[in-house]
């Protein structure tokens, strides 16, 4: 006599043992119970199914994004603002964010000196209105009650956009730099590795990286942290920048407009935004005021579109100017 059908058999169609296919019929409803009186039941699962669900999706994404339209290095406030602006303006673009930390968000989870409130000077507060972050209006500036409220709202908005992929715990450890159609050195993509690998190069023999080819890179790697100002430093060592400008002392009134107005393409194919630009240019820091990050991120999105519209691209590579 055939053994009684188990919940698992019921929930999955056995396919001659080769691969279990989830049968999303009514078995789900029959097998679960959201019962908090000691009878809570989940739908049955196979461990292999969980692994396959992750592996299939992650590596399909990785395979698909080795050619992207825009790569944004750094998911801090300026990188995320750039992604939000770019992805909503151009939902056709394949935008890939590479973030070294496991936790994206950079320095925008707290205000200044580990205090929670976040100050954003007008007119940068308009982004808060656009994405639905409540704030207290103090006239010349606004205050978000917790910096994490801004960052988590912006992050969830960006991650929900179908054309945005974020690979966190992944570091950009070099740039692809080629001679382009005009004979100039052009940044043409990024070189990546798992961050834990990138940080362990001194302890293991060479653990080679991966690549992502794209016509436009926005670098927003900040000014501190284990890899702060990564791209600016790499431009110096690669001979595309004579020397680092090094961030100057704090001056809120001078630094924030300078940062927004100077956000630009610092090398062919490479736009720099946020505090990394202060290190590149040698401009002032602003301390715990985040309007400059927002403005710089939005300007970087405009710059990325300007560059994309000025070149012809084949398979992620710039082949000529328009
Ligand atoms: O938040 P950050 O550090 O950078 P920004 O420019 O988005 O925002 C800066 C802002 O938080 C301030 O510093 C404030 C306004 N203070 C100013 C002041 O005067 O002190 O985000 C950069 C992100 C981080 O999440 C890093 O983990 C990431 O970039 N990152 C990288 N990701 C991938 N590959 C790398 N090589 C890399 N380097 C940094």
Automatic annotation (TrEMBL):
Its GO biological process annotations read: thiamine biosynthetic process; thiazole biosynthetic process
Q: Does the keyword Cytoplasm apply?
A: yes
Key words, A-Z = Cytoplasm, Iron, Metal-binding, NAD, Nucleus, Thiamine biosynthesis, Transferase
UniProt-listed InterPro entries: FAD/NAD-bd_sf (IPR036188), Sti35 (IPR027495), Thi4_fam (IPR002922)
Q: Under the cellular component aspect of Gene Ontology, which terms does the record hold?
A: cytosol; nucleus
CC cofactor note: Binds 1 Fe cation per subunit.
Q: Which PANTHER family match?
A: THIAMINE THIAZOLE SYNTHASE
UniProt-recorded name of the protein:
Thiamine thiazole synthase
Q: Which organism is it from?
A: Lentinula raphanica
Taxonomy of origin reads: Eukaryota, Fungi, Dikarya, Basidiomycota, Agaricomycotina
């Amino acid at each position: 006599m055939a053994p009684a059908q188990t919940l698992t058999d019921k929930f999955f169609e056995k396919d001659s043992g080769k691969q279990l296919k989830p049968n999303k019929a009514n078995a789900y409803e029959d097998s679960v119970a959201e019962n908090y009186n000691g009878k809570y039941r989940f739908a049955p699962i196979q461990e292999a199914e969980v692994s396959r669900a992750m592996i299939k999706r992650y590596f399909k994404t990785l395979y698909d994004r080795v050619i992207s339209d825009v790569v944004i290095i750094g998911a801090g406030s300026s990188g995320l603002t750039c992604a939000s602006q770019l992805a909503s303006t151009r939902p056709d673009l394949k935008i890939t964010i590479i973030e070294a930390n496991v936790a994206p968000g950079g320095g925008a989870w707290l205000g200044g000196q580990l205090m929670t409130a976040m100050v954003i000077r007008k007119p940068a507060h308009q982004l808060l209105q656009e994405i639905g972050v409540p704030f207290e209006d103090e006239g010349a500036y606004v205050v978000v009650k917790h910096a994490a409220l801004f960052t988590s709202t912006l992050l969830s908005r960006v991650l929900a956009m179908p054309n945005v992929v974020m690979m966190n715990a992944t570091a950009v450890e070099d740039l692809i730099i080629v001679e382009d159609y005009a004979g100039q050195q052009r940044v043409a993509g990024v070189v990546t590795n798992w961050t834990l690998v990138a940080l362990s190069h001194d302890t293991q023999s060479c653990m080679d990286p991966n690549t992502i080819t794209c016509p436009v890179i926005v670098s927003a790697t900040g000014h501190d942290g284990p890899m702060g100002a990564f791209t600016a430093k790499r431009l110096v060592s690669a001979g595309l920048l004579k020397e680092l400008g090094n961030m100057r002392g704090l001056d809120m009134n001078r630094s924030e407009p300078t940062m927004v107005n100077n956000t630009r393409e610092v090398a062919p194919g490479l736009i720099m935004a946020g505090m990394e630009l202060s290190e590149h240019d040698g401009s002032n820091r602003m301390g715990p005021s985040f309007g400059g990050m927002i403005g710089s991120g939005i300007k970087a999105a405009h710059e990325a579109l300007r560059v994309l519209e000025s070149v012809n691209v084949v398979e992620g590579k710039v082949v000529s100017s328009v």
